[in-house]
Amino acid sequence: MKTSVKSYVAIVFAELCWGLSFIWTQQLAGRQQIPVFVLIFVRMVLAAAGMAVISLAVKARLKIARKDIKWFLLLAFFEPFLYFIGETFGIKATASPTLSALIIAIIPVFTMFADMLFYKTKVPAIAKLGVLMTVPGAVLMVIEKNSGASVYWWGIALLFLAVFSSCGYSITLRKLVDNYSAIAINTWQFLLGSIFFLPLFLTTKGDFPVETLFRAPAVGPLLCLAVLCSCGAFSCYVFAMKHIGITRACIFAATIPIVSAVASYFMGIETFSPLQILGIAIVIAGVILAQNTSQKHQNLC
Question: Where do the structural domains in the chain lie, given as residue ranges?
Fold first, then answer.
């Protein structure tokens, strides 16, 4: 199979996993009321262990150049540390996997403009138009959901923390992806992420019995998050980005709310009004349009 075909298969797999991750996270943090930092820390430890096993199995080179240590630390600080705080608390507060996925789907747009700021990349007018299109779509989705609870709006703010953290992750990743394998990057990312989350885990764990995470009904969603969404999806994303460029890889983030919405509907978690469907369609169209760059802009984000 050609590298380009493998790359597109990899990115599709990653986006499918990330689309479903909002449902699994809501099941654990929302329905089962598992403390957020307990959930994230255990997920990070399992992901780091999984990547370590894979690294040993394929004899991946894990050594980091001294000059790159600061970039690996910054990478892990943005994602998983800040990103998963924003995403997990945001999903729990909004209680809507689809709304959460919708906001996260705007990441490529913000990443594009972050690239303009930090790398002086020129963005065509059609891409900027796509950004403007996402605004009314997001407003339709939020207004139609119409929750007056302050925790709901706090959840939206946290989801945008995840968006901006992901932008920082992508900008930092550009400095590493040419010199390190996807396995090496993700192994260090989750190992450092586990270290970052350890103090929060220890101070918020309380009397919660961690072993309950490894019993039904929590163990299934937890392993899906750690193995599929962390080890698998992140490795596939870095691999795809390395071969088809970050811009082309970012385009597929527009499919995340589709996956979440379809899965949520068939699982009976959510139903949607025509206005909500219109809002989703507008946001997805805006994100795709924002990524519809010419060949000379392939390394945009």
Answer: 3-297
Give the C-alpha separation, 21 to 26, whole Å: 8
Q: Which amino acid is at 163?
A: V
* pLDDT value, residue 145: 55
The Cα–Cα gap between 211 and 67 comes to 39
> Measured in Å, how far apart are the chain's first and last C-alpha atoms?
27
Tokens of 79: 């994602």
What are residue 73's phi and psi, to 5 degrees? Answer: -65, -45
> Could you identify the residue written with the tokens 């932008």?
167
> Which one-letter amino acid corresponds to residue 186?
N
Phi-psi category of 37—alpha, beta or left, where left has phi over 0 and alpha has psi -120 to 50?
Answer: alpha
> What are 90's two structure tokens?
């945001």
Residues 262, 28: Cα–Cα separation, whole Å: 20
Helix, strand and coil content of the chain, in percent to the nearest 5, comes to 80, 0, 20
Give the Cα separation of 182 and 59 in Å (integer): 13
Provide the pLDDT confidence category of residue 147 given band limits of 50, 70 and 90.
Answer: low
- At 141, is the pLDDT very low, low, confident or very high (cuts 50, 70, 90)? low
Nearest of 12, 26, 8 to residue 259 by alpha carbon: 12
Distance CA 3, CA 8 (A): 9
Give the DSSP letter string of 256-268.
HHHHHHHHHHHTT
